């Protein structure tokens, strides 16, 4: 029997039955399924309340306390609060919390600090990089001269010698570190040395490991990075949006102008409030315990899958994210993801380094422990999840196994309710 929606979730929705049905359907999906997609998490009721507030009504442009519109007294206080919390959490001097997304944060930094056509050196999407770092299908890929570095074929790790050779050949104005599917710690000091050698800025996109950075469980980008960007909704468990952080005062006006009016207009103030709320939560002691559990749970899941004979790209993980190579199973990522979703396990297909298959039907899966850990899952739960994933991958067409797994998933979810 489905659980009723929470009281705070429904006010006003009853006036639009079709919309209410879809929203409550999504709530039921989240409650009764296990989220393993690395770009998702489960926000608190505080974040939901901040984002669903009267701040939706307010339009502001420009920086806090220097707006183009009036009536911004409380808007200024909210944005300033989010900035101060971000600076405290990541021990930096300056921040911009206005970006609507991580992609906007990156695009704004590029626009503010580079000239159109300047050279950028970033990780190839096929090796684990992010499309906003210069993929040819994006504006950044079209507006700048992009060179990509990858990973070593044997170790599947970033090869600093290759990065240096490419930097010396392309003379980039910006080197970008971080990505969407690289599960290992990055040598920021080594990349900064290369950046200094060629006169480039080093930008670190820490979207997938920001929470671990904040709690000392992953190498800190500062002081090596000139600029750090992040989303606020993955490892930070907050509002959907982005942030830019830096320490050099001479960059401030250019970065801020790159965000507004460079790549976006009015501030989404309700989202900024949601960011302030999640940063408040991230500054509490229990956030450290959460991130320690994220890391332990990810490693337990990876180890369980490896024990079932599934290869983990790079042999493990240093964050909540991992890549699973399905090549030995004969099952492609798209087929596996569809079967797992039917069983109540939400994952995403993903290319692995040097993948011979296309992005639409790649050889891998990308998994994350972030949302499950937020829900309260521990090592034993993630070991069970690993068993279920292996079972479905081995028999993706076995509807009886899928149905049986779905019942087990549902029982586990009901033991760890959300909202």
Please, could you describe this protein's structure?
The chain is α/β, with parallel strands linked by helices and 419 residues long. The protein has 2 domains: 233 residues, Aspartate Aminotransferase, domain 2 (3-Layer(aba) Sandwich); 127 residues, Alpha-Beta Complex (Aspartate Aminotransferase, domain 1). 43% of the residues lie in helices and 13% in strands. It is built from 15 helices and 15 strands. A 7-stranded mixed beta sheet has the order 4-10-9-8-7-5-6, with helices on both faces. A hairpin with an 8-residue loop joins strand 11 and strand 12. The radius of gyration is 22 Å and the shape is globular. It starts with 16 loop residues before the first helix and ends with a helix. 48% of the residues are buried.
Cα shape: globular
CATH architecture of the largest domain: 3-Layer(aba) Sandwich
Helix/strand/pairing class, anyone?
Answer: alpha/beta
Q: How many strand elements?
A: 15
Q: Please trace the helix and strand order, writing H or E for each element.
A: HEHEEHEHEHEHEHEHEEHHHEEHEEEHHH
Our measurement of the CA-to-CA distance between the termini, rounded to an integer number of angstroms, reads 16 Å
CATH homologous superfamily (4th level) name of the largest domain: Type I PLP-dependent aspartate aminotransferase-like (Major domain)
Q: Bin the strand percentage.
A: 5-15%
> How many domains make up the 3D coordinates?
2
- Helix residue percentage: 40-55%
């Amino acid at each position: 029997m489905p659980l009723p929606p929470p009281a705070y979730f429904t006010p006003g929705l009853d006036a639009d039955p079709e919309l209410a049905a879809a929203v409550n359907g999504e709530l039921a999906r989240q409650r009764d399924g296990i989220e393993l997609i690395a770009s998702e998490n489960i926000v608190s009721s505080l974040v939901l309340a901040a984002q669903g507030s009267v701040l939706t009504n307010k339009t502001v442009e420009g920086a806090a306390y220097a707006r183009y519109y009036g009536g911004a007294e409380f808007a200024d206080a909210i944005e300033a609060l989010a900035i101060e919390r971000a600076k405290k959490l990541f021990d930096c001097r300056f921040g911009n919390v206005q970006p609507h997304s991580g992609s906007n944060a990156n695009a704004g930094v590029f626009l503010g600090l580079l000239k159109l056509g300047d050279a950028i050196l970033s990780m190839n999407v096929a090796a684990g990089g992010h499309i906003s770092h210069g993929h040819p299908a994006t504006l950044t890929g079209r507006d700048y001269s992009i060179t990509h570095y990858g990973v070593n074929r044997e170790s599947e790790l970033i090869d600093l010698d290759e990065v240096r050779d490419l930097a010396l050949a392309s003379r980039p104005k910006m080197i970008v570190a971080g990505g969407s599917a690289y599960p290992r710690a990055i040598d920021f000091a080594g990349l900064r040395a290369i950046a200094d050698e060629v006169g480039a800025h080093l930008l670190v996109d820490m979207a997938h490991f920001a929470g671990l950075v904040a709690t000392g469980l992953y190498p800190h980008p500062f002081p090596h990075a000139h600029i750090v960007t992040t989303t606020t909704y993955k490892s930070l468990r907050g509002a959907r949006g982005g942030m830019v952080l830096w320490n050099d005062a001479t960059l401030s006006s250019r970065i801020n102008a790159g965000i507004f009016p460079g790549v976006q207009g009015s501030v989404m103030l309700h989202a900024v409030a949601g960011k302030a709320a999640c940063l408040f939560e991230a500054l509490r002691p229990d956030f450290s315990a959460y991130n320690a559990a994220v890391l332990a749970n990810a490693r337990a899941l990876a180890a369980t899958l490896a024990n079932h004979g599934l290869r983990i790209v790079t042999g493990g993980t240093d964050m909540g994210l991992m890549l699973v190579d399905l090549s030995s199973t004969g099952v492609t990522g798209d087929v596996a993801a569809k079967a797992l979703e039917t069983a109540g396990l939400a994952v995403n297909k993903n290319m692995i380094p040097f993948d011979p298959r296309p992005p639409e039907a790649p050889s891998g899966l990308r998994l994350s422990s972030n949302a499950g850990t937020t829900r309260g899952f521990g090592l034993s739960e993630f070991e069970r999840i690993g068993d279920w994933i292996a079972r479905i991958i081995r028999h993706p067409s076995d509807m009886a196994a899928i149905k049986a797994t779905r019942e087990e998933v549902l029982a586990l979810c009901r033991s760890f309710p959300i909202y």
